[in-house]
Structures are given as C-alpha cells and as structure tokens.
C-alpha cells in the first residue's frame, strides 16, 4: 500500500456529494457525456499526428508542441475543435516524431496548466510532457515471439514481491544495471561468494511470478537528479500508462524506459517467470495539478458532501471508478499493459476504493485476452471510501468478484501478529489463540467444516469462494519484514531460533491452499533494520543484502525445497473449494500451538498419498496421532528433502521437533 496503514472497513458509508461549481453545463458527474469511440489522445503517422482529449467541461482546448521534454517554449500551438461527447480534436501535419506535447484546457475563462493528458504512452523526463514516438520502434529484438510462460491455473502460482531498487542496488549483487529494469535481464550474476543473484536467484528459488512494486511513472523520484540516491515505493501515480523513468538508463529519452521495460518482461518470460504489476488507480500523487484535474476537474475523484476531496487512500484523494470514463480508463489501462508490455497479472493497491462492477469489468476484459492473467488486490482501504460498503471491492465482497484474489490479513496476523502493533507476536512465536486463523489460511479461506466461523462479519468469515481467491502471506513491503517482526516480538531469540521460525512460517505460507506470496529477501532473512513503513527510506534500509544468501543458505534451501514440493504435488494446490473440503482434513493436536492436517488420498494424481503436514510452534516436541501406516519423511527439524527423503516411520504417531514443521506421506 502506501504511507498510511490500512484498516478493514466495517462502517456503513454515505454516497458521494458533488461540488456544483465544477459541472459546467451538467448537473452532476453522472450526466457527463460518455465517449464511446476509440479513446486515444495521440495517433502518430509520418505524415500527420492526430490529437484528441476528452474534456467535456472545457471552453477551449489547445495542444502545445515542444522540441524537448522539459524547458523551452512551445514551438507551435494548435487549437482543438469540439467533437462529440466531450471529445476535442486537432490534427497536425508533418512528421512530429521525437517532439513533445501537452494539452491546455480552459474552464471559467482560465487556462489550467500543462498536462500530458490522461493516456500518454510516452513521456519526457519526470513525465511532464507527452512524447510523440512510434511505439513499434520500442520493441526489443525478439519481442514479437515473446510469450507468457505456460500456466494452467492460479493455483500453480508462487508470487515474489520485489522493488527494483531493493532487489539490485546492493553492489554485492554483482549486477551492472543496479536499481534498473535492466537488472532483471542480466544472466549469470552472483555475489563474490558465488551465490546467484538477480534473475538467476529467482530461477533457483523457483517462484512463478514476480510482482513488481509500482513501475508506472510516479512522481516522487526526481528523474533529473538520478546522480544522487533517491528512493520511493512509488505509490504516487503520475502517468498510468508509461513506465517509471528512474528505473530506466535514460529518463530523458522517451523510448528508452519503454524498451527497457519490455526487455525486462521478455527476460523474465524466458526464465519461465510471469510478471505482475502493482497498479495504483485508487489515487494520484496529488489531486491539484494532476492530469485528471487539469483535464476534467472534479470528475475523476470522489468528494465528500461538503465538496472537498474524499480521501480513502490516506494520500489526499480517492478516484471514482464508478464513473463511466474513470471505469473505462482503468479497464483500458490494464489491457494496454497486457497488450503493449505483455504483463501477466495485476495487484490492485487499496482495491476496496474501487467498485465491484469495475473490478468485474476488468476481469472480463482480461479474460478475453487470456484468462490466466491474474488479478489480486488489497481488499481494504485506508479510510472509508465514498461508496456504500456493498458496492466496493472489499475482501468480504470477494465472492461477488470471481477470478479476483485478496490478501488474507487473517492468515498473516495469525502467523506474525496483528498490524498496528509491531511488538505483538502470534502463532509463530508460540502465542496461543491463533490456530483457527492458521487453519483458515491453510484451507485457502473457503468454507470448511473444520474451520468454524464466528459470525458473518467476524474476523474469520470465510470470504473466499475458491482457494485461489486468498493470497497467503506473512509479510510484504508494508510493515516490518518477517525477520524484523520476529525479532521485535521475541527480542531474546537467537539467530538460529529466528531462522527456525522463518522456516515454520514459510512452511505455512507455501503449504496453504491459497496463492502463496513471498516478500523479496525473506528467503534469505532480509532485514529492514526495524523500519516497517520504509516507503522513502534510503538504500541502507531497503536494499537486499545479498551476503545474506551465504549466511542463511539453509533458509534459502528450505524455502526453495518447499516451492519445489508445492509445484511437484498437486495436493498442496487444490484448485477448487470442493476439493479442499474433500481432501483437506485437520488432525487433532495436543495444543493450540500446533496445527496439523492431512491431504487425504492423492488428489490431482499426486504421487504422494495421504500427505500430513504438522506445524509445531511449541517449544516442546509435539506428538500427533495419525492414521496407522508407513510414511516417508520429507520435512523434519528444519530440513526438507522431497527427492531422497529423510527416512521413514511406521506406526500411528508423529513426534514433531519444537518450533519446526514436519511433512510425511505414504
Ligand atoms: Ca517518474
């Protein structure tokens, strides 16, 4: 998410008010004309360039043409003509390739400031002016044969969330293009100790998807000052349909960031890894002076009854997905990233600010392209949005959004402790009262006879219709990373104890029937030195220290082993709720500090029969009654070996070492 911590919305909300002064000839935002034709703002050809802008409340609109992406005055000004449904149009003869442009909108006899428009596909430095380029020339060699790596369904996913700069800025990474898109194109990189880094690390770990933190053009990093270190997570959108300039090797040249982004996607695809983009349509960096506000003031944002900007994002504004042209903007922006950049999935920041209908339209539009394109999001907002609760994409409404997943804070909090108080621990550090939340997450959040729910609105409402609608995780970029959280909640623990609990947590996440999600670096015990909200922290906090891979090789190998096991055995990733109810059976345990389950039979033709997983967070060994038989041990006492195994046992009891997981099968 972003700068403010999130809450889960439970309150009943009121419908949006409107400020009448912004409406010009229209009585409300709902009456604004809706443009139905192809929505483009700049169509280039060598003989002429067509400009269009949807600005229904404008008195006049003009296009300014520039030689450069910043500085200097316009060399030409083109008045635009009003066309149908709020659209304005102009045509400029001649070859404008390489030039830049902005739009100016006049309302109430005042010219609003320069804007590159809403749909700029290429921009100059800092995204202040749009660029006229021929997009075909930005395709890297081999792009026309680039393909999504094969994937049968969402249950096969293992997500790895990363920030470009965190991932490669450390010089120890051995990566040349540190902090850039191109870092993910470099093969054969390693630390001085010989451990693989970069894309080779991802391949070695075995994840199926990288989820990149905001990589569209955002506002906070000054692209003209890349000579000095700057950092931001990027939850402050400026141009939604253009890659961020600071991750390119030259933010001044509009084609460079586009080409390098494509090179990154292509390299990941060639490594068998799909790419999920973190998208932040719920708010803009600022409302005043934003592209939305300089084009159609008021329309793209929600307001409170007194006409002020509403602020469900906690960042000063919230967008209005329920309005026809905002909804269209979101649907088409997502499709654009898929079609132009071959993106394979989206993570919606503060998804509950958007309305359900918009999210379902996005799902439908992506299904037409490829139904394996993933959608997940945060099923909450920072504050209550200006729409009734039953209309917004809350986690509790996820059953009305088939094919869309939401993060399970229940599972996360049951593992590591609740958000908002970093001193509180939970299951992993041996606190009681969290086994129910563990079972909830392990069952993928679907209704299950052994996961009783408190009440319809209770903390453990089974909100997922299918297990693939639940994102199973214990940490992400928000809040303390898991090592730091464990250290904060168990200050006297030794590094070995922390590592043991990391493995236990990884086992829970990677054997959950939900979609597992790992925060980059957790697999090598990354630390952010106690800083949770590190959205603008320096590299000294955020950079992944790749030397950790040697120090914590054991945790890395264990995590890698879990991922390989999940991928090899369909019992760990049952696609349907029905299958989860049929095959997943929780076993009685001696205490609330132990959770155990069996996957009955061999669903999906699994080569393993009757797999049993035990998570023991107790400081004492746990003894579990199991159906009598002979079992192969594949995980025990912090070690995992699914190929050769770790021995066998015969009988009707399992003894699981303290603070560790055990996995056996017949
Ligand atoms: Ca930028």
Descriptive notes:
The protein is of the alpha/beta class. The protein has 13 helices and 26 strands. It has helices spanning 164-168, 198-205, 254-270, 324-341, 356-369, 409-416, 435-442, 482-489, 495-510, 539-542, 548-551, 553-568, 577-583; strands spanning 42-44, 48-54, 60-66, 76-79, 81-82, 87-93, 100-107, 110-111, 130-131, 159-162, 209-212, 216-218, 237-243, 274-279, 345-348, 374-377, 405-407, 470-472, 515-519, 584-587, 594-599, 611-616, 622-636, 639-640, 648-656, 660-665. The strands form 5 sheets. The protein has an 8-stranded parallel β-barrel with strand order 10-11-14-15-16-17-18-19. Helix 4 (324-341) packs parallel to helix 5 (356-369), helix 6 packs across helix 7 and helix 9 packs parallel to helix 12 (553-568). The chain is elongated.
Characteristic key phrases:
666 residues; alpha/beta; eight-stranded parallel β-barrel; seven-stranded antiparallel beta sheet; 13 helices; elongated; binds calcium ion
In short:
It is built from 13 helices and 26 strands. With 666 residues, the chain is α/β, with parallel strands linked by helices. Helix 4 packs parallel to helix 5, helix 8 packs across helix 9 and helix 9 runs parallel beside helix 12.
């Amino acid at each position: 998410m972003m700068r403010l911590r999130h809450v889960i919305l439970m309150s009943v909300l009121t419908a949006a008010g409107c400020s009448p002064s912004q409406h010009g000839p229209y009585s409300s935002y709902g009456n604004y004309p809706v443009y139905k034709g192809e929505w483009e703002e700049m169509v280039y050809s060598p003989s002429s360039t067509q400009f269009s802008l949807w600005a229904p409340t404008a008195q006049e609109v003009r296009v300014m043409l520039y030689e450069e992406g910043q500085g200097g005055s316009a060399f030409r000004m083109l008045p635009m003509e009003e066309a149908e449904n709020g659209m304005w149009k102009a045509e400029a003869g001649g070859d404008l390739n390489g030039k830049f442009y902005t739009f100016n909108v006049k309302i109430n006899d005042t010219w609003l400031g320069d804007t590159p428009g809403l749909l700029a596909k290429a921009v100059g430095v800092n995204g202040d002016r749009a660029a006229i380029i021929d997009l075909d020339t930005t395709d890297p060699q081999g792009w026309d044969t680039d393909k999504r790596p094969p994937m049968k369904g969402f249950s096969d996913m293992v997500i790895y969330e990363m920030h470009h700069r965190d991932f490669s800025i450390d010089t120890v990474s051995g990566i040349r293009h540190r902090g850039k898109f191109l870092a993910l194109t470099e093969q054969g990189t390693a630390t001085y100790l010989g451990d693989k880094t970069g894309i080779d690390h991802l391949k070695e770990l075995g994840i199926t998807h990288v989820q990149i933190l905001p990589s569209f053009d955002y506002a906070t990093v000054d692209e003209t000052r890349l000579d000095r270190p700057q950092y931001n997570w990027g939850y402050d959108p400026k141009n939604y349909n253009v890659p961020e300039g600071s991750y390119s090797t030259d933010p001044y040249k509009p084609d460079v960031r586009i080409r390098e982004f494509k090179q990154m996607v292509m390299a990941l695809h060639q490594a068998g890894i799909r790419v999920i983009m973190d998208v932040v349509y719920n708010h803009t960096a600022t409302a005043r002076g934003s592209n939305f506000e300089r084009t159609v003031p008021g329309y793209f944002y929600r307001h409170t009854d007194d006409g002020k900007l509403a602020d469900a994002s906690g960042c000063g504004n919230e967008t209005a997905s329920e309005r026809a042209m905002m909804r269209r903007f979101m649907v088409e922006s997502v499709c654009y990233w898929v079609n132009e950049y071959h993106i394979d999935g989206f993570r919606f920041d503060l998804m509950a600010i958007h309305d359900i209908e918009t999210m379902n339209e996005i799902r439908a539009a992506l299904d037409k392209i490829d139904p394996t394109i993933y959608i997940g999001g945060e099923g909450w907002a920072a504050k209550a949005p200006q729409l009734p609760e039953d209309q917004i994409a809350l986690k509790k409404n996820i059953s009305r959004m088939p094919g869309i997943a939401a993060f399970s804070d229940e599972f996360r909090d049951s593992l590591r402790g609740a958000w908002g108080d970093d001193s509180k621990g939970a299951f992993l550090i041996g606190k009681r009262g969290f086994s129910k939340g563990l079972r909830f997450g392990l069952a993928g959040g679907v209704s299950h006879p052994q996961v009783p729910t408190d009440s319809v609105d209770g903390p453990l409402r089974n909100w997922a219709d299918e297990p693939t609608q639940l994102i199973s995780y214990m940490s992400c970029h928000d809040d303390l990373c898991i090592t730091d959280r464990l250290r904060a909640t168990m200050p006297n623990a030794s590094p070995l104890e922390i590592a043991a609990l990391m493995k236990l947590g990884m086992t829970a996440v990677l054997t959950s029937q939900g979609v597992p999600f790992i925060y980059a670096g957790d697999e090598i015990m990354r630390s952010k030195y106690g800083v949770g909200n590190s959205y603008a922290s320096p590299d000294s906090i955020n950079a992944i220290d790749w030397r950790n891979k040697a120090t914590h090789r054991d945790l890395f190998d264990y995590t890698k082993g879990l991922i390989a096991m999940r991928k090899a055995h369909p019992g760990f990733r049952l696609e349907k709720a029905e299958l989860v109810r049929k095959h997943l059976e929780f076993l009685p345990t001696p205490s609330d500090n132990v959770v155990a389950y069996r996957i009955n039979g061999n669903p999906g033709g699994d080569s393993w029969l009757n797999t049993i997983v035990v998570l023991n967070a107790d400081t004492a060994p746990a003894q579990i009654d199991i159906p009598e038989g002979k079992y192969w041990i594949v995980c025990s006492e912090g070690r995992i070996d699914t190929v050769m195994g770790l021995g066998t046992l015969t009988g009707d009891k399992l003894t699981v070492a303290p603070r560790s997981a055990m996995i056996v099968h017949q």
